[in-house]
Specification:
The structure is a single chain. It is built from twelve helices and eight strands. With 316 residues, it is of the alpha/beta class. The protein is 41% helix and 17% strand.
Length: 316
């Protein structure tokens, strides 16, 4: 599947400059959506648009979207059959007209009223391709929290330009790698010139998207602020039990990264990632293990998984 798209140019719908397009892929998050919208609509930066894509929700999320759209003309909404987060984000990107893109999970919240303002002003000052900042993860009651490293700006010099390969080396070496897009604030012209879009039909699509985004830039800056609260819930990607699909999607990410490049940093990234996910893979039912392990073996990925993780995968 192709995740690079040809560059498209769209006519402006309004004479007013849109500084930030906030992209919200929405699927069955009705209990949290009010809080999410409120955290965006009360931002001090007013020149924004919110592109909400209802990805086939069945829980009343669409009614909440319509409620807010009637209150605020900055909200644009689309509805599609359930195709997954990647397809929803790609649809929103087709219509985004902001100078910058912020992709937010629809059950998250911006924790500072000036979050978008701070990102916009810092990105403009540094002329960055994109900036990254810190966040805070929190879990629903009863959810076994999966550890996420959402704080990594402390290991990078603020106001100093970084290149993506160097950053990825640093994050891997310090065990602070985090692939999520909700910690990034991206210049739209940079994204459009790359023609980069999300690989559809998989989970863990951020691993692929952010790796290619980073490795394509030598103009990245960090903003040392904690700006987003990320909710881990039972139905979210990071809240559900680890399954064969998780492993299959990580293997797809590996396939696509090696199509993108065979540079040493890609091999280092795959050793870091696949060893961890196959170690965790011992949790999947035994009946699912042969097929996914055979796929990894056939693709030549055992050199990345390693002996220890392979043994744990089968016997723990």
């Amino acid at each position: 599947m192709v995740y690079f798209k040809k560059k498209c140019i769209f006519a402006e719908k309004s004479q007013q400059m849109v500084k930030v397009s906030v992209i919200l892929p929405i699927y069955n998050v009705a209990p949290y959506l009010d809080e999410t919208f409120q955290s965006i609509l009360t931002q001090t930066l007013k020149e924004i648009e919110i592109i909400a894509v209802n990805d086939g929700s069945t829980d009343g999320s669409d009614e909440i979207i319509q409620k807010y759209q009637h209150k605020d003309s900055r909200i644009i909404s689309f509805t599609q059959q359930n195709k997954g987060q990647s397809a929803a984000r790609n649809l929103a990107l087709l219509h985004a007209k902001g100078q910058y893109i912020y992709m937010m999970d629809s059950d998250d919240i911006l924790t500072a009223p000036d979050a978008l303002q701070a990102c916009y002003e810092y990105a403009e000052k540094t002329h960055a391709d994109f900036i990254f900042f810190d966040g805070e993860s929190f879990s629903e009651k009863g959810v076994n929290r999966i550890s996420r490293n959402t704080k990594r700006t402390h290991i990078v010099n603020e106001n100093k330009r970084c290149n993506g390969e160097g950053l990825l080396h640093l994050f891997l070496d310090t065990q602070t790698h985090n692939c999520v897009v909700w910690l990034l604030f991206i210049r739209k012209s940079f994204l459009d010139n790359l023609g980069l879009r999300f690989y559809e039909g998989i989970i863990h699509e951020d691993e692929l998207f952010t790796s290619i985004l980073s490795l394509s830039s030598n103009n990245i800056y960090c903003l040392r602020r904690n700006l987003v609260g990320h909710r881990i819930r039972t139905a979210s990607t990071m809240g559900i039990n680890f399954s064969k699909r998780n492993l299959d999607c990580y293997l797809t990410v590996a396939d696509e990264l090696l199509r993108f490049s065979k540079a040493p940093i890609i091999h280092k990234f795959l050793r870091y990632t696949l060893s961890k996910v196959f170690y965790t893979g011992h949790l999947i039912p035994f009946k699912d293990k042969p097929a996914v392990f055979w796929r990894a073996l056939r693709s030549g990925y055992l050199k990345y998984i390693g002996l220890k993780s392979s043994i744990v995968f089968w016997v723990k």
